[in-house]
Amino acid sequence: MGNYSKALEFYEKALQIFEKVLPPNHPSLASFYNNIGAAYYNMGNHSKTLEFYEKALKIREKALLPNHPDWAQSYNNIGGVYNDMGNYSKALEFYEKALKIFEKALPPNHSSLATFYNNIGGVCQNMGNYSKAFEYFEKALQIFEKALLPNHPDLAQPYNNIGGVYCHMGNYSKALEYFEKTLQIFEKALPPNHPLLAASHNNIGGVYCLMGNYSKALEYLKKALQIFEKALLPNHPDLAHSYYIIGGVYCRMGSYLEALEFFEKALKIREKTLPPNHPDLAQSYHII
């Protein structure tokens, strides 16, 4: 697990000093607020993350010229938090603000543009607009494939995203193809207990579940869970998701006691970390 609480402690000590010596709208203060927000994000604390990202944005809007890249960074960060909180319309609003700035500031094949296309595609996917999501993910992939060598770590995300859209559209063989490309890249690029590696195992396990291959699904999902339990704080939302989908496989297999055990673990985390109207929380209550 990244030592995010320790990082937070040092950022806050530094911030106390800078708040005394700098004027209240100094850009360096915005950077510290941003870093503190990122530490809270990595700890799964969305409300505190949003609080500090919004502080950073307020300063940047006062201190920097319109369309400054730092505005876009703040919009993108805030969009990411809203996306994780299930507020997809707000997420889209902030991601599109960020994209407008970068489309003016960057050449058309710049890798940062691809990142924004990925983000907007992700929100469209969460909103159920899969054709629009596919359009943005393809834009991102085209940029990355021109700019990067095969198996470059940055190719993993667009492959993963396209795999997700194929999965939602019911094309499981294509989904598996793209998810396996993602896993191959992550296995070469990341340490063995990295959360992204776990997420990749989760995705492949999920497709096998949808294809009815439950033993193969559990194999991948339990690999993911082992990584998440080592890499994340005990109440992290990604851990809840892992418990939930393992519960789902057991449920499909008719192993209801095992299913209930995992569903309850997921619910316990979601009740602590998600707002009361989050769709994942409703999903947990419904299944139990």
Task: Describe this entry's structure for a reader.
The chain has 288 residues and is mostly helical. 79% of the residues lie in helices and 0% in strands. It has 14 helices and no strands. It has helices at residues 4-21, 27-42, 46-63, 69-84, 88-105, 111-126, 130-147, 156-168, 172-189, 195-210, 214-231, 237-252, 256-273, 279-287. Helix 6 (111-126) packs antiparallel against helix 7 and helix 13 (256-273) runs antiparallel to helix 14 (279-287).
Summarize the structure.
One of its GO terms (cellular component) is kinesin complex. The chain has 288 residues and is mostly helical.
List the helices and strands and how they pair.
Layout: H1 4-21, H2 27-42, H3 46-63, H4 69-84, H5 88-105, H6 111-126, H7 130-147, H8 156-168, H9 172-189, H10 195-210, H11 214-231, H12 237-252, H13 256-273, H14 279-287
Mean pLDDT: 92
Structural class by helix and strand composition: mainly alpha
Radius of gyration: 20 Å
CATH topology of the largest domain: Serine Threonine Protein Phosphatase 5, Tetratricopeptide repeat
Total count of strands: 0
- For CATH, the homologous superfamily of the largest domain is named as Tetratricopeptide repeat domain
Per CATH, the class of the largest domain reads Mainly Alpha
Low-confidence parts: none
Please give the CATH architecture of the largest domain: Alpha Horseshoe
Helix and strand pattern: HHHHHHHHHHHHHH
| Distance N to C terminus | 30 Å
> What's the total helix number?
14
Determine the fraction of residues in helical runs and give it as a percent range.
Answer: over 70%
Shape: globular
